[in-house]
Amino acid sequence: MPLRPSQRPDRTGAVLLMTLLLDALFALKNTSCHVSTVGTHSEPSPPDMVFSGSSWLKYHPNPGLRVDTFAFMLRFKTAVMDGVILSAEVDSAKLDSAKLSVYLYKGSLILSIWSSEKSSYGTFKQQFSCQSASETCADGRWHDINVSSAFSLLQIDVDQRSASEPLPKAFHGLRMKMLILGGQQQGALALGIPQNISNFTGCFQHAFYHTGPNQIDFLHLLKEHLDGLQAFNISLHRCSLSGLVNGSLMSKTRRYTIANSMVTFTRPGGYLLLRGWKTISRGRIAFRLRTFQKNCLLLYSSSSWPLQSRIRDLAEMKRKAGASGRLLEVVNASDLLTGTDLFSLELREGYLVLLLNTGSGINEFQTESIWRQTKSPWFSADGKEHSVEIRLIDGYLQVKFDGMENHMNLTKTPRYTFLNLNGDLYVGGLPEELRLSNNELPPQVWSAHLRKDFIGCIGHLVIDEEPADLHLEAMATWARDHVEHGCRSPSGACEADTCAPGVCDEGWAEPLCECADTNRDGPHCKQEAQILTFNGFQGIEMHLSKLPDQSEAESLVLRFQTLQKHCSLFESASAISTAPDKFGLEIKDGRVMLFYNFGHKTWNVSTKPQISDGSWHTLRVLRRSRRLEVKVDDTSLVYNISDEATMLDSDYICIGNLGKSPDILYKDSHASYLKVPESDAFVGRLSQFYINGLNVMSLVRTLPEFRNSHDHLRKIKEPEASIINAWKDNIGVSASAAENDADDILEFPIQFGDNGGLLEYVLDPQKRCTTLAFFMKTRSTTGVIFTLLASSGDFIHLELVSGMLSIRYNIDIIRGQSTARNAGYVNNTSWHKLKFGICMAQTLLLTMTVNEIKHEAPSTNISINRPVLFTRLLLGGPPDKPVAYQPQNQLENQQNYYGCLATISVSQSSNEGEADNVSEPINPLRFFKSLHNVDAGCHLRGDVWEEDTAATCRPGVCGFGGRCVQQLKTYFCDCSMSGFTGPVCTDVATTVTFSESERGCAVLEFNPLRNTTKDAIAFGIQTKHREPVVLLHITSHSNSLDFLRIEMTNFRKRSVLRLTYNMGSGIQVLQDSSTDLADGNFHVIRVVRSMSTAKLQIDSEDVLEHHSPNANGTDFNKVQQIYIGCDPTTLNVRKGAAIPSLSRDSAANRFFVGHLTGLTLNGISLGDILIGESVPGLYLKMSHALVIDPSFTPNLRQSSHLPANDMEAVQVRYNFCCRVHKKNLKNCQ
């Protein structure tokens, strides 16, 4: 990709010099005559051999070079399904003559050997397929075929896929007598080849023939006109399909068909991938279209490459290098300083809108006002055929529509007039991996973000006077089943039951069904939708990007059912950024309230319909810039957001809550440390969830099959596979699959640990009657479920005795116990519904109902001599401390409850019968005084604790402390805080090696600068070097003093780790003095900074924590650069270039020596950036003396089976909802 400075990181030294030269070059080009320009190359590429369909090349090997082993290697490209690639005359010890042929038949490669001498010798024939998205070798792309003989075997490689085939005995020891490339001479009989197969039409990039140690290059022979070679009608020039079309290589009928071809996009999800513009200052694109779609993507091209393709290339590169023991060089930093240029064309409300960025920023060109009340002649979504012509002229655009002309008006002259693109032009849609490519998709391309794909006809597409073969591109897997040949007449009319019970919208080739108002799914709303249940501690979270992404348009569709009148429903924001940007939904007073914040102030609006009635409701939200459309069921409203800004920064979205606050799960908490959360998380059911056009519920349903099936890629079509591949490691689902919508939802379940859990509530002593209701599940036979305690020491508690429920009480002088035998055993790990009532007046009244079976304790209607006021409710056991005035210590030595409680309701009244039954779900954790060893959620299933290894997260499933992320009926491992990688965090991650002879260092830079409220860092380290060195240093801009530094320092003959940071509260230090990092063993380091608090852990040792007493500074402001393996003060700045150099101070010459693996910052793999992965917003500025070692093997002293511990870093990626629902809890901020 050509270099061009435009809104990129500052470039220094050699990079700056290169930039100045390029600027001068482009300035010179921009002043030259206005012609269509392509990128220049310092060394011209060799030409290709172009065969016209009658061409051939004959070669007679030197008889002296003939041996019984040979090989030929070909790289070819064609768009014709049939043709002879190679034919050869061979012989063997048993045969005087035989024919070896390689030809295309219906797009497949056929290799055959045939002899007419003796039929008993038989024939050899094998069929091979090319690696092609179109499942054909005639897809217009380059393919490789290598064939080599080894006496009795043929080794055939087609596109790097190998096969060894044994030869019949008659063909052992084949020798080459004559070889013809491209077919046969005119009039010659092609033996062994079907008669209807003509000569090859296409191109050869290279063609080599090997015999023994000798290699023949046919291109070289042809160029030099050497002896031994005969050729006819072969051209030498660069090959392109358009050249095949426009030249004399195809028939006039074929050329006319391609130039006038049209295709029909029948349904959303597909796209065409064409060869588009690369580096140009002037160009022309023309086409015709027919559609009814008012909002859709037509054309898109940028300088960014699809993220997943890069990741696959990186993985393959590391795999091959590791297998061969090679080291990988870190990429040149200047190679990553490429543009983010853009050209796109979309329809908005039926009018053409173009976006162009040549390096001076995005310019938007609307051919007409999209919000106009009446249609203008520029309206194109009327089903009629319209012609479109777009011209790029030195940074400006000119558009013709049905002969009408419109020019792009710019407020200022563009600084750069060359458009630098990667050469790929997407037509009608985009692959999912490009939509989820970390800030690479500009927010201004509304249709791309909203997944509004084109439906209708496109054709007559010409790019710089070269027609595109749309019929050929429609054969690709990403277009198949979505794009058809020819322009079909509109036939998408709706019948009465086409989409019933959904809504039918008229499409083009077929109706489009909208199922969002039903609990149905599928293309025609005939399939039962996936219904998920949320219990208040469950949720769905989606990771959008590694750095906060910007959007100017969002769409959201939810169909849900709830009784809650107050709760948080949905949020999209950033987990690490300090920006207040937010798109959220809450339920307040039974109505939906919508929030938007673009960085300045929060704008909100409340809808009218009541939705907290237990019925199903459908909510739709669509924002495009400042225009907001909200619809609840049948009620629609349109708003104009009163904010100058229009961009929303976010990196996650979530519904519900995961309930994974470490302070609740793993520590004792008391009222003095906790505040009541502002609102509960969502409790209810969800059947439809679309975010920006993505069907999340369908994705959730498909993921288990995708992960658990070995041949899942064969079962899932390309567009669906693209979506799953993009999202499979970016979504977590802890919600439960609902069998139906009639069963009770077990709200806010909590689990009491086997070593004693306790949850305490404060009761109003003035209320004489208390009602407690809940569901319970256990497999224990004994244990105290709850205790009512008075300040006088009087108590009532419910306990398990031999698996049955029993009430025990001590009030005044009344003591007793009553077992509910009529309710049977309740320790069968099923849920049981309980309701317990007590009323204290002149007499004691106790009642209990178990699964609707009433049990009244005998002899409880007894007069009480003194008032008894219950002040405490203890769930999970007796008091954990002795109680004053407790008679005979009857509560001591009682076992705690081991099991789960859910849907807990506590109500009090002054008189019997006045206690209200609470219908709205109540979160018990909002009202407690203290708790100990209580877990949010219930994991008790059957006779074991969730031991379904194929579907459920469990301890130790992810190695080296990796985090298991549940995805409904499957899971995956988040290894970002483990120092490892792979499916279960046991594979060695990208390893950066720092040698002792060099001063290794790398510098990465954020552009734009970032402000973060939380940072999570993890890496593995192995070294024997004991000098104090800097491992990682993160700096801020010069006008901010914030920094974070991780270094090795000497302490009592050990090399220990020290963390130093300043977030505006002064320099803070946290040091682990117990682990010697320079012992030659492999260690994993984890660091999490949350506001002014830092946590540090090495391996599986205790987590160290430091909190700044001065809370004035809590954010890391203007984060700019990351130094890896070196100290910024050791870098001499010469003409803007940071270069490691020696200093008089010996301490300044200390550079790290050893290995760093799996270095991640907030989920971003910094090691992968060093070898080419692109993360827009974070750039490689400088690297020196570093190599990547794929064969590195760590020297482990610890087991991989470590408990998951990312020190709350999980909240950065997979526990986002904690930011909203428990943001007032200590350390959950």
Automatic annotation (TrEMBL):
The keyword Signal applies. Keywords: Disulfide bond, EGF-like domain, Signal. Pfam families: Laminin_G_2. Gene3D superfamilies: 2.60.120.200, Laminin. InterPro entries: ConA-like_dom_sf, EGF, Laminin_G, Neurexin-related_CASP. Residues 1-33 form the signal peptide. It comes from the Eukaryota. PROSITE patterns: EGF_3 (PS50026), LAM_G_DOMAIN (PS50025). The keyword Signal applies. One of its GO terms (cellular component) is membrane. Residues 949-986 form the EGF-like domain. Residues 46-239, 261-487, 531-713, 735-938, 993-1217 form the Laminin G domain. PANTHER family: AXOTACTIN (PTHR15036:SF49), PIKACHURIN-LIKE PROTEIN (PTHR15036). This is Neurexin-1a. The lineage of its organism: Eukaryota, Metazoa, Spiralia, Lophotrochozoa, Platyhelminthes.
